[in-house]
Design a protein that fits this description.
By secondary structure, the chain is mainly α. The chain has a single domain, classed as P1 Nuclease. It contains ten helices and four strands. The strands form two sheets. The protein has a two-stranded antiparallel sheet with strand order 1-2. A two-stranded antiparallel sheet has the order 3-4. The two termini are 33 Å apart. The structure holds zinc ion. The site of zinc ion has 5 residues, from helix 4 and helix 6. The site of zinc ion (ZN) has 5 residues, from helix 4 and helix 6.
Length: 324
């Protein structure tokens, strides 16, 4: 995904937590409120902070941004399932989840990256809290915020279907960057941002501001609002634990993201079926109306799921240190 898309998804995740807070158990509301109190100081840094994984770290080729599957008769069945608030999961036949997979390990590290960032955030805050004020060894809050933004980057990438598909859609086909370009252009068409200052234009509550509001209803982005309105974060049990919203099979951020990446891979094979009908060497999304329409129809689900994931990975990471 591209720079402003990453920041936009993260800003929407912040708003989603705010909107859903009253539906969460009272204890979780407290954690959510404290997390929001922290992260709401940083929205002006989201465009830069959520982009460091690409602009500075560039661990794309080592697999930091990807987790690539292929179907394989000699492979293994994945046992980590995305939770029910993942809407793309509901659009895939249940039997597809039982097909054995091979993971191309040389370009697959995304869940590892997210788990490591989540644990590092816990460590930074615990160490900070254990020290006297002004101790030179303490991390500062901006460092913690940057890690949350980097975590949002890798979490969002897990939802880009082609980040989880072992087939190459970058070269010679450019379907992968072309899809990401469509999202970036649409977000910037309806939400004003300053390229000079690398910031979205926010209202006085630090929320995104819609421009082109009269045409917004015609954009696929407007369907995201409906999906998020209907979304419910259902805990796996009544026990207040940091992993309570990550899904029944998942005990940590790594498990959760493996489940998400599995859904993304299956979504990719729905949009771009293995074996055709497209010629994958020359395919251009703008020239294939079926592919284009299917992609636009699925985009609200993909992007709403990415927003929900960032929200829940952030909240889980915050609860992880508070509950330790
Ligand atoms: Zn990335």
């Amino acid at each position: 995904m591209k720079q402003y898309t990453h920041a936009w998804l993260s800003l929407r995740a912040m708003k989603l937590l705010e909107d859903k807070m009253s539906t969460l158990p009272p204890d979780v509301q407290k954690y959510t409120e404290r997390f929001l109190g922290f992260i709401k100081s940083y929205p002006s840094t989201f465009v830069r902070g959520a982009w460091f994984p690409d602009s500075v770290i560039s661990d794309n080729l080592q697999g930091g941004h990807t987790w690539k599957y292929e179907f394989s008769d000699t492979g293994r069945v994945n046992n980590y399932l995305a939770p029910d608030f993942n809407t793309c999961k509901t659009l895939i036949p249940a039997a597809d989840f039982d097909k054995p997979l091979n993971l191309v390990t040389s370009i697959s590290a995304l869940p590892d990256r997210c788990e490591a960032l989540s644990q590092s955030i816990r460590d930074m805050i615990k160490i900070y809290n254990s020290l006297k004020k002004g101790d030179v060894i303490a991390f500062n809050f901006s460092q913690v915020a940057i890690f949350f933004l980097m975590l949002s980057h890798y979490t969002a990438d897990a939802h880009m279907p082609l980040h989880c598909d072992a087939r190459d859609f970058n070269d010679p086909s450019t379907v992968h960057p072309d899809m990401e370009d469509i999202w970036e252009k649409e977000a910037l068409k309806y939400y004003e941002a300053s390229k000079k200052y690398k910031q979205f234009d926010l209202d006085q509550d630090n929320n995104l501001r819609l421009i082109n509001a009269q045409n917004y209803g015609t954009s696929f982005l407007s369907k995201i609002d409906t999906l998020l309105n209907n979304l419910q974060f259902t805990p796996k049990s009544n026990k207040i634990e940091f992993d309570m919203y990550l899904g029944n099979t998942n005990k940590n951020i790594w498990d959760y993201l493996v489940g998400v990446c599995h859904v993304s891979f299956l979504t990719s094979t729905q949009l771009l079926p293995i074996g055709g009908p497209y010629d994958y060497k020359t395919i251009k999304i703008e020239q294939e109306s079926n592919l284009y329409n299917n992609f636009i129809n699925r985009s609200p689900n993909i992007l709403a799921d990415a927003i929900a994931s960032i929200a829940i990975v952030w909240l889980s990471t915050w609860m992880r240190w508070e509950l330790l």
